[in-house]
Amino acid sequence: MDAYEQVQKGPLKLKGVTELGVTKRKKKKDRDKAKLLETMGKIQKNQEEELRRHLDKLTPAQVAFEKVREKRHMERILKKASKTHKQKVEDFNRHLDTLTERCDIPKVSWTK
């Protein structure tokens, strides 16, 4: 019986747990969201400032080139978005019909 004299009797006691029960810690959602919005605002302001500094260093010709490039990029995006998938497939099939048999690729079907 001497070997069992030091055995703890009763419930186990765990570290970090109060005796009355487990208490939940409050989440810091509001603070995290506020910090995130604040940092996003700062990042956006920094990007705008960098853009202004970058544009100040450019020559007028370079600024005009950047504007035209951005305009063409937007036009390209709008052109690609104007057609539906069905129209794109039909155009592709028409293009394949014009090719010679050496370059023959099986037609793409949009219905099955």
TrEMBL record:
Gene behind this protein: LOC109572443
Record-level GO cellular component terms: nucleolus
Family: Belongs to the FAM32 family.
Protein name in UniProt: Protein FAM32A
Coiled coil, from the record: none
Pfam families: FAM32A
Domain of life: Eukaryota
Matching InterPro entries: FAM32A
PANTHER family: PROTEIN FAM32A
